[in-house]
Structures are given as structure tokens and as C-alpha cells.
Design a protein that fits this description.
The complex is a heterodimer of chains A (302) and B (298). By secondary structure, chain A is mostly helical. Chain A is built from 14 helices and no strands. Chain B is mostly helical and 298 residues long. Chain B is flat and about 70 Å long. The chains are: A mainly alpha (302), B mainly alpha (298).
């Protein structure tokens, strides 16, 4: 980098001696910075406007009767009282409430299976079975090539077996959701594991007498906490937004519930969607705080 | 005799040696067993089932069903929708990514845009459909504002057609582009621009000969990823379009729900196989481009 700047300087002076009508570099730089700031302001505000209008519209829509134009809190009251509404009127609100509960259980199960299945395998392959790393990567990224709608077609027979062995309950969708989050979780964890000196850590731990379980959960896990958090976040976001598999396998989750309730109450459906979106935003905020803090601590450590 | 004993001993040792070397691989057993059941077997069911008739014999009749009018139309519409939204998302997203990159690494602009993008890129499906119904649907906020302010009366019925889907898909394609293209833009060094200017290069010359060629490969790769993303999307279209099946994913769901017999589903499998082929070609091209791009952005 230093070499480039010195080269720039010498070249700059030479062109100036040649008598080219070039402005001085510093002036050019400030002029460009000003032009870039203007350009940035225009582009960012225009696109942010496009991002914001539908969200603001959702918020307004949820507070306003579409025909009379009167303002109301009824949709948000329904969101807050969903449990009571589902108990008193199960045919209308039941699917939404059950779907919400199912989705929350699915989030926990999916993240748990993903972390306990994928992370130890990735660590193990990196440390002990290097030849399998290409195969592992291929399988983890395969769901990117197989859309959920395609997977559903092949999953119907598999879930017929799951239904007889376990039950037809929605929560067993966690098995296929783990597959759907696999590429994103793999990438996050792969980046995390690549950033630490896994071999030295594990060899140091083993020479001090630690077993493999201890190495994975007490030594490697805390060191890749940021990657684990971001893999979990993407899984939460994906599971809360999942519709395709649940609908086509005739299960009830949050999204199928929202879809059903939209036919009787559009406002409630919109309010519920907005609540889910805000929840995702909040999660991301927490995530950026957690990872931001750990990174800062890492720098101080160096 | 001693030689044979020795040979026996050696073979036993080497056999034990192989076993010892293979044992660590057993640790990956649970993972591969899991993905076998929930990823590889379903895929195999689709691929094999596409070439079977209802009684399980080999048949090309399901594949032949792909040649019928409505199916061909749906493939065509899906390809056009994916291509158009990939280009819109790619162009707008890359301009936004460049604008954000000029702001510097740790500024508020960048943090807001990147976190908004990472949430909105995941914001597909039913919720997105409702967001646009609330915006430009028949009772949408923008529709009503247009009516009261400008006196323009629209029914918003265009939202439920393929052109409407272009607008809706752009809503997750643009943020996705920002996320995947930003690292490439970050790879551009300000020094290169200064070097180009001190050699007398104009802004156009800089983009034409320096930044353009470097960004071209990751840009094309990102477009392919966006294409695959739109092509695979189902939930958004399903929530908006309920009357007809203009896209391949909608055709698949229609085929699943129409086929009453349990052993059937051959047409759905053939359609699914068609989708996999398209996405696999796109992702294969992406992998090749990615390898080329990695050479530049180290």
C-alpha cells in the first residue's frame, strides 16, 4: 500500500512538470469526496424510501379501517389478546395462535439441532478427517440448488414415515428446517472457524488432558461465539418466515396462520406480520451488539 | 513358512491401520445420516420419480408433460421474472453498495444500510405480500393517497399479476444484492483511482479500465445468485396469486394438491426436476465465476 502511494506521488509530480492542466491531488480529492457525498445521499435516501414505504404502509394499514378511514387500535389489541381470542373463537384465531406457538418451538428445536449436529461435525472434519471437508461443504451448500418447493415434493414420503414413527405434529418440521438453514449456518460457522487457530487450540487442550467433548463445548464454542450467534440468527429469521414447506405438508406455523387469518381479518394479518418483522429487526440489533462487543474485546486482547 | 506368517502379520497390521485411520470418519456419521434422510433421499425421490409412472415403471410421460402449453408458459414467465428482477436488483443494489462503500467502513450510513439489507433480504413470503397489499392494493395507503391527492383511481389489481411480482420481488432482491456485492466493492482501493488520475485518466477511463473489469466478474456472479433466488421463491407468489399458476413453483403446488392418488405426483416431480436443472446450471456458472473472482479480491 505504501509503495502504491509513493508511486502515485512521483507520477503525479511528473505529470505536473509535463505541464498537464491537472489539478492538485488534494483539491481533486476534496472535490470528489463532496461529489461522492452528494451521490451517496441521493442514492441512499431514494432506496431507503423504497424500503420504508411498504413498512410504513403496513403500520398505517394496521391502525386504520380501510373503508371508513377511522383510526383504530383494534388490530393491535387482537395481537395482544391472541391467546384469549383463540380460546373463545378457535375457528378464526386458532390457526394463528397455534401457528405462533409452533413456530416458536420450531425456532428452538431448529437452532438446537443445527448447532449440535453441524458445529461438532465441522470441527471434527477440520481436525481429524480433512479429506471429507469437500463432501461436507458440498452437502451443506446443496440446499441452495434445491429450492424448498422441490424438497417438499420429495419430502412427502419421508414425512409420511415421520408421522407414523413420531406424530403428525408441526414441530417435527424442525428436521427439514435444519436442512433449509444448512447453507447459511455452514457459511457463518466456516468463517468463524477459519478465523481461529483451531489446531493449536485443540492440541494445547489435549496436551493438558482435555477430551474431545471438552474441546468442542468449552474451548472452541466460546471462541466462535460470534459465528454461532449469527448462524442462530439467520436460522431464527428463516424459521419464523417459512411458509412453503409448512403449507404444502399441511402443517400450521406462524406464516400459514397469518395467511389463513388474512381471509377473515386483513388488519390483524398485517399487524402480525409487522410484529414479526420488528422482532427480526430487534434480534439483529441484539446480534450486532453481541458480536460487536466480542470483536472489540478481541482487539484489546491483541 | 515364516514368510507367509510375516505376510499375514503385515496384512493384519495394515488392515488394522486402515481401520484406525477410518475410525475418525465415523464421527461424521450422525451428520451424514441426517442429511441422507432429509436432503439426499427427498432429492433422489424427485429425480427418480420424475421418470416413473404410477405403478413405478420407467416412463417418460411425466417429462413429456413438461412440453404442454401451460407448463412451458410457466417456465417462460418464471425465467423472465427471475431475469428482470435479477437485473433490477443487481443494478440498484450495486449502486447502493457503491454509495455505501464510499461512506467509509464504520459510519452510521453503512451500519443502517447493511443491517436493514440483511433483514429485508430475508423478508419474503406472506408478510411481504401483505406489505405490498397494504401499500398498493385496492385499499392500500399509496393507492388511497394517489386517489385523494392526485385524483388517480387504481384498483391495484396489477399487483396480483407477474408485473406486480417484479415490484414485490425487487424488495428482497435489492437488499440481497447489497449484502453479496458489498465485499467486492470494498475490495476496490482508493489508491487505484488516484493512480489512474495521476496518469491522466478521467472518471470514465477509471471505470472503463480499472474498477469496471475488476467488478464485472463478481457483478455477474451476484446476478446469477439473484436469478436463482427469484426462481426458487414460492411463498410471495403463492400469497399474492391464488387464481392461476403462472410460475413454475405455483405449477408444482398445483400439481401436488391436484393429484389425489398417493403413489402419483409424477408430474410434480418432473416439474421439480426441471427447476433443479435450471437452478443447478445457474449455480454451476456462479461457482465458476466465484473461483475467478476470488483471484482478484484477495
Amino acid at each position: 500500500m505504501v509503495e502504491v502511494t509513493t508511486a502515485t506521488k512521483t507520477l503525479g509530480t511528473r505529470s505536473h512538470e509535463d505541464g498537464r492542466p491537472a489539478r492538485r491531488p488534494r483539491m481533486r480529492r476534496t472535490a470528489r469526496a463532496r461529489a461522492q457525498a452528494r451521490f451517496r445521499w441521493v442514492v441512499v435516501s431514494l432506496v431507503m424510501l423504497f424500503f420504508l414505504i411498504p413498512i410504513v404502509s403496513m403500520a398505517l394499514f394496521s391502525f386504520r379501517f380501510p373503508l371508513s378511514g377511522k383510526w383504530t387500535l383494534s388490530a393491535w389489541k387482537d395481537v395482544a389478546d391472541l391467546a384469549a381470542l383463540a380460546a373463545s373463537d378457535p375457528s378464526t384465531y386458532g390457526p394463528l395462535w397455534d401457528g405462533l406457538l409452533n413456530s416458536l418451538v420450531l425456532v428452538v428445536l431448529t437452532v438446537a439441532i443445527m448447532l449440535f449436529l453441524l458445529t461438532p461435525t465441522m470441527i471434527w472434519v477440520r481436525l481429524r478427517v480433512k479429506p471429507l471437508s469437500r463432501l461436507l461443504e458440498f452437502i451443506c451448500l446443496l440446499p441452495l440448488t434445491i429450492p424448498a418447493i422441490v424438497l417438499v415434493v420429495g419430502l412427502a414420503p419421508v414425512y409420511r414415515i415421520v408421522s407414523t414413527v413420531l406424530s403428525t405434529a408441526t414441530i417435527w418440521l424442525c428436521f427439514v428446517y435444519v436442512v433449509l438453514v444448512l447453507p447459511y449456518a455452514y457459511r457463518a460457522l466456516d468463517a468463524g472457524l477459519g478465523a481461529i487457530d483451531l489446531r493449536t487450540l485443540s492440541e494445547a487442550a489435549r496436551s493438558l488432558g482435555a477430551g474431545w467433548g471438552r474441546i468442542m463445548f468449552r474451548i472452541v464454542f466460546p471462541n466462535i461465539r460470534g459465528a454461532v450467534v449469527s448462524a442462530s440468527f439467520i436460522s431464527v429469521a428463516l424459521v419464523l418466515g417459512e411458509f412453503t414447506v409448512a403449507e404444502l405438508l399441511a402443517r400450521q406455523n406462524l406464516q400459514t396462520g397469518i395467511f389463513l387469518v388474512s381471509q377473515s381479518s386483513g388488519q390483524l394479518a398485517v399487524a402480525m406480520s409487522l410484529a414479526a418483522l420488528l422482532f427480526a429487526f430487534l434480534l439483529l440489533l441484539v446480534l450486532s451488539l453481541v458480536t460487536g462487543r466480542s470483536r472489540r474485546r478481541g482487539w484489546k486482547g491483541i | 513358512m515364516t514368510a507367509s506368517i510375516q505376510a499375514q502379520g503385515r496384512s493384519a497390521i495394515s488392515w488394522r491401520d486402515t481401520l484406525r485411520r477410518a475410525t475418525p470418519a465415523l464421527g461424521t456419521g450422525p451428520f451424514f445420516a441426517y442429511t441422507l434422510i432429509f436432503l439426499l433421499i427427498p432429492t433422489a425421490i424427485v429425480v427418480i420419480g420424475a421418470f416413473q409412472d404410477n405403478s413405478g415403471r420407467f416412463s417418460l410421460s411425466n417429462i413429456a408433460a413438461l412440453g404442454t402449453g401451460p407448463v412451458l408458459d410457466s417456465f417462460m414467465q418464471s425465467l423472465v421474472l427471475s431475469a428482470v428482477t435479477a437485473v433490477i436488483g443487481g443494478v440498484v443494489g450495486s449502486v447502493l453498495a457503491y454509495a455505501v462503500a464510499t461512506a467509509g467502513p464504520d459510519t452510521a450510513t453503512r451500519r443502517v444500510v447493511t443491517s436493514a439489507s440483511s433483514v429485508l433480504a430475508q423478508f419474503g413470503g406472506v408478510m411481504l405480500a401483505f406489505a405490498f397489499i397494504a401499500t398498493v392494493g385496492s385499499n392500500g395507503i399509496v393507492t388511497q393517497a394517489l386517489h385523494t391527492v392526485a385524483g388517480v383511481q387504481t384498483t391495484g389489481s396489477w399487483l396480483y399479476t407477474v408485473p406486480g411480482l417484479i415490484l414485490v420481488y425487487s424488495y428482497f432482491q435489492i437488499p440481497l444484492m447489497v449484502i453479496i456485492f458489498l465485499p467486492a466493492v470494498d475490495g476496490i482501493r482508493p489508491e487505484w483511482r488516484e493512480a489512474s488520475e495521476s496518469l491522466g485518466g478521467s472518471t470514465w477511463a477509471y471505470w472503463r479500465h480499472v474498477a469496471g473489469p475488476i467488478l464485472a466478474v463478481p457483478f455477474a456472479g451476484s446476478l446469477l445468485l439473484l436469478f436463482a433466488n427469484a426462481f426458487a421463491a414460492y411463498a410471495t407468489a403463492a400469497a399474492l396469486i391464488t387464481q392461476s399458476n403462472p410460475l413454475v413453483p405455483l405449477q408444482i403446488s398445483g400439481a401436488i394438491t391436484n393429484e389425489v392418488n398417493v403413489t402419483g405426483g409424477g408430474v410434480a416431480k418432473a416439474l421439480a426436476l426441471g427447476m433443479v436443472v435450471v437452478v443447478a446450471i445457474v449455480m454451476g456458472a456462479y461457482a465458476i465465476l466465484q473461483r475467478r473472482a476470488a483471484r482478484w479480491l484477495k
